[in-house]
Design goal:
With 214 residues, the chain is of the alpha/beta class. Helix content is 33%, strand content 25%. The chain has one domain: Rossmann fold (3-Layer(aba) Sandwich), CATH 3.40.50. It has helices spanning 16-25, 44-51, 67-81, 97-102, 123-129, 165-188, and strands spanning 5-11, 31-38, 56-58, 85-88, 107-111, 134-141, 151-158, 192-195, 198-201, 204-205. Bound molecules: ligand NHR and glycinamide ribonucleotide.
Amino acid sequence: MESSCRILVLISGNGSNLQAIIDGCCDNLQADIVGVISNNPDAYGLIRAHQNEIDTSCVIPHQGESRGEYDARLDAVIARYQPDLIVLAGFMRILSHQLVEKYQGRMINIHPSLLPKYPGLNTHARAIEAGDSEHGASVHFVIPALDAGPVILQAKVPVYEDDTPELLAQRVQEQEHAIYPLVVKWFSQGRLTMKNTEAWLDGELIGPSGYAPD
Ligand code: NHR
Ligand code: GAR
């Protein structure tokens, strides 16, 4: 990336991943968070943005509005920020194919499971229910199919005998805060790309479980 990478973060809630990205990768001139958009006007992440002097917008769903109509309004707000990278950080709305295709290769998400396991919602409860001994989080490029884009980086955590979804979520989120800023940094350094629905780092294909150093 020639000049600073313009990063736009989409949130719905607490924004702890937004905070990790603010703290972890915008201390250099290569990455600049130019805005935060929330679908939820009460998201605590908006306060975090304000505290860090980051511009915010809310795109609140209207009653009876179709997904297409919402996404068109969202896209108009996104366009104002001219982002190089869109970071979904706990953004809780599925995005339409048109919107995702427009930003394909420039939109990433963090999902709270070891994809391809447990796409969708309630991942922590599902991992416990299944008796899994490990769980985790995945950063992936966003493609139209939900949580199906190429994985960039994963982090694993143990699942304990007496775990609850809340405890497990905390353990996973701690790892999220370590891996998401790293991936954002790679992208802003121009090291990370998506080609033909594959993720590449430094010219090397990333495997299905995400980047793993040899
Ligand atoms: N959009 C596309 N097209 N592709 C992806 O991979 C996407 C996406 C939008 C969001 C994040 C994702 C996650 O990490 C994400 C990935 C929301 C839902 C969902 O079911 C599922 C997955 C993700 C985000 N949302 C409900 C909906 O009807 C609303 C649920 C709620 O409001 O609580 O949009 O898990
Ligand atoms: C994170 O754990 C993220 O993986 C998950 O929501 C949390 C948001 O936390 N994302 C999803 O479930 C997307 N469907 P945060 O707002 O504190 O970053």
